[in-house]
Structure formats: C-alpha cells, structure tokens
Design a protein that fits this description.
Aminopeptidase; seven-stranded mixed beta sheet; three-stranded antiparallel beta sheet; 11 helices; binds zinc ion
C-alpha cells in the first residue's frame, strides 16, 4: 500500500486553511521582540502623590553608556516583577524607546545603547568602589561622604507614624528614636574610619514643613472614605510621602553623598499597639532599589526613576556594598536571613546574597546615589524586645541567657565593620 502520510498532511493543511479563514477574530498573538508594536499606555501621565513631572531630557546624559544586554538584564531581573514594562518600553537592537509622561502621540524617549565601537562613561555624582583610589591603611572610608538616614521620625510623631507599641507600663518601643540613637553611635565610628558623615536628621522632628492638616485636601481629592480614613490618609501623606520627599531634596541638593545608609529596625505585624503580639523569631535583610510593581511601572515618575536608577548603575554598587555589609552584619549579630513569602509582586531576590532583596521604596528610589536600606532585628520578637528594653550599655550583659552587647551598639559596630571591610578591598 502507498504511504498515506502525504495525503493526510495535505488534508490537514486544507482543514487548517479553512479553519483560519472561518475562525472568529482572535486576539493578536504576542508581538515578537524583533518587530515590536508601539504601545499606547492607558494613562501615561499619571504621577505618584506629590511627585513632580519627570525631566526626561536629563536622561540624554546616559546615551551610549549601557549595552543592550546589561539594560535588558537589569530591567527584567532586578527592576521589574512582571511583563508590564513592555507596555512602555520597546527594546530594539540599538536603542530602547520609552513612553514618557507626555501626550502618547508625542515621540518616545529614545535611549541609544552602548556598542563595542561607541561606549561613553556613565556620568555620576557619587564615587563608586571600582574607580576609588586605594585608601590609606586604617582609613578605608577616606574620601567617602556617607549620609545616615535614621528611618521614621520618632518622638511625639511615633504614634501617628505607627512605629510605636507598648507592653504594660514600661517604656514604649518607638522605631524612629531607636534608629536616631544608632545613627548617632554610628557617625563617630565611620568618621574614625575616614568618612565624612552627615545625618539626614538629628532630632525627632520632621524634615518636611508640611503637616497632616496641609495634606487634608489632597487626601480628600484622592479618596471618598469616611472622616477617620481621610485623617489617616492625610497623616500617611505627611509622615511617609512628604517627609521622605523632603529628605530626598536634602540628600540630592545639599548633602550630595556617595552612599546613603537608611537605618531601620524591622517588625512583624503586632496588631493592637497597646497590646502587641510578640513573636519568637528574629531576622535580617537589606533592601536595594528594584522590584517595581506593575502599578509602579505605569506611573510616569516611577518609570522615570527606575530608568534613571538603571542608567546610573546604582544596583551594581548597592549589590557589591550590600553583600559585604550583609555577610559581616550576619556574622556579628548571628541574625538569620529573612525570607520573603513566595508569590509577592513587589520584591526580587538578589542572587549574590540570601540577605539582599530588591524593593522599590520611596527613599531608595528618590535618593540619587546608592542606598543601603537596613532591616535588621524584629522589634516585636521576644528576643529583640528584651534587648530593646535593656537599653544601651557598654560591654556585655546576660539577656535571653546569653552574654551580648547592647542591640544599638551591635547594630552600629556591625554596620561600621561591614563598610570598613568592603572599602578596604
Ligand atoms: Zn522602619
């Protein structure tokens, strides 16, 4: 018998043609990357609260500074968490086309990639590790300007900013006061190592002149909730948005450091601040900028900031400095690495260290230089709560059955040693 395969193949092909001609109009298949469509985002002009219109032309300084493969790798492996960026960024062989916040009919911002024949140096205001001169013996941080940003405000603002809890009648735990205390211990340690150090804040007062009442109308425009929710919203716009934007202005326009250390103490959900839940575990991680969510990529100012971070190559520096700090800090504090619950769309793990994660926070996005955002200890863990209640002291004391230094000194010492180790190399 003759081989039936050619006949069957012809029949199948015929049926396929008939099907293709008669089928209802299906959605377009995904565009292959080589010949992409020009995307038109639904609302490219949307901005975050209190954000200014981004100055896209400032990115002209980065033409021919990054290769296509570095750009794509940073964008897809660190800075974004899904494919939403494809609505706004088209990567071609020699350039990327980026939808700005302007009228979508306007041409996109065109970023030309570096090529082997045409590579320009990356313009940056901060000194990176790779090109620093070798520091003198004993002064590994010489010629380095470090800003210390003690997280939150503390003092009378601690309750409003929800970084306050109290057990019984003993001293309440207020993160903003604890971070400022560590900042003041850390400053002389870094100066001893040769650094110039500036505190972003040195009191428990806000940097921003705005207060919740100044932001009430903005809150009302943006939400239709009841009075209590509106008040909470205005407060959040004050202590989070306006405060961190004011600190960013100070960092970027006045301090202009090579590195910012954002100091925080971590916590897990504690419920009622007057009767908080204590948990039996403590941990540590460091956050670098990255992990932009789909909604964040859709906001023109955040998309612009993400591009600027990618082009300034801050991630490479943050990962390098962060890795040594994390290793040293973990060795001294014995804290285990925090593991983010799986499935979140706002975080990327950084492969070089189990302690490093990329997340898009207002501070590490807006500060115009590498930022090491520290999240050691868990304030409402039984272990660290006992240490916080013990307060600051010199030397060692028995707490939780172990001879240990004060939590504040351990924080400052371990961070200073990590920085010394990194920059001594
Ligand atoms: Zn914090």
């Amino acid at each position: 018998m003759r081989n039936p395969a050619p006949l069957i193949a012809t029949l199948c092909l015929g049926l396929l043609v008939v099907f293709l001609l008669l089928r209802p109009k299906a959605p377009e298949p995904p565009t292959p990357p080589a010949i992409p469509e020009k995307p038109v985002p639904s609302n490219p002009t949307a901005l975050s609260f209190l954000a200014e219109n981004p100055a896209w032309t400032t990115l002209e300084a980065y033409q021919h500074t990054i290769s296509r493969s570095d750009f794509e790798k940073l964008l897809t492996e660190i800075f974004t968490t899904d494919e939403t960026w494809r609505e706004f960024i088209v990567i071609l062989d020699e350039q990327a086309e980026i939808i700005t916040n302007s009228d979508p009919a306007e041409p996109p911002f065109v970023l030309h990639f570096a090529t082997p024949e045409n590579t320009h140096p990356t313009p940056r205001l901060w000194k990176d590790t790779a090109t620093r001169p070798i520091p003198p013996e004993g002064k590994p941080l010489e010629n380095l300007h470090i800003a210390i940003d003690a997280g939150h405000i503390g003092g009378e603002w601690a309750k409003i900013e929800e970084r306050w809890f109290q057990i019984g009648n003993v001293k309440p735990v207020t993160e903003g006061d604890m971070t400022l205390y560590v900042a003041k211990l850390l400053k002389p340690l870094l100066e001893e190592l040769g650094a110039t150090v500036t505190l972003v804040r040195s009191t428990a007062e806000p940097v921003t002149p705005l207060r919740p009442e100044n932001l009430a109308s903005l809150a009302a425009e943006s939400a239709t909730d009841d009075a209590a929710s509106l008040r909470k919203f205005a407060e959040r716009l004050f202590y989070r948005t306006a405060e961190i934007r004011a600190r960013a202005d100070l960092v970027n326009q006045t301090i202009r450091p090579d590195l910012v250390l954002c100091l925080h103490f971590n916590a897990e959900a504690w419920g009622d601040p007057n009767s908080p839940t204590l948990i039996p575990r403590t941990h540590f991680h460091i956050l670098l900028n990255g992990g932009y969510t789909p909604d964040e990529v859709r906001l023109a100012d955040q998309r612009f900031a993400m591009l600027k971070k990618i082009l300034q190559r801050t991630h490479e520096e943050e990962a390098l400095v962060g890795k040594t700090i994390a290793e040293t800090f973990a060795e001294i504090s014995k804290l285990p690495a925090y593991i983010y619950p799986p499935g979140g769309n706002n975080v990327r793990s950084v492969s070089s260290s189990p302690f490093l994660y990329a997340r898009n926070l207002l501070a590490n996005r807006l500060y115009d230089c590498p930022v090491i955002f520290m999240e050691p200890y868990v304030m409402n863990s039984t272990i660290d709560y006992a240490r916080i209640q013990a307060g600051d002291y010199e030397g060692l004391r028995i707490i939780n059955g172990q001879q240990i230094p004060s939590i504040f000194r351990e924080y400052a010492d371990a961070l200073a040693k990590g920085l010394a180790k990194h920059y001594a190399r």
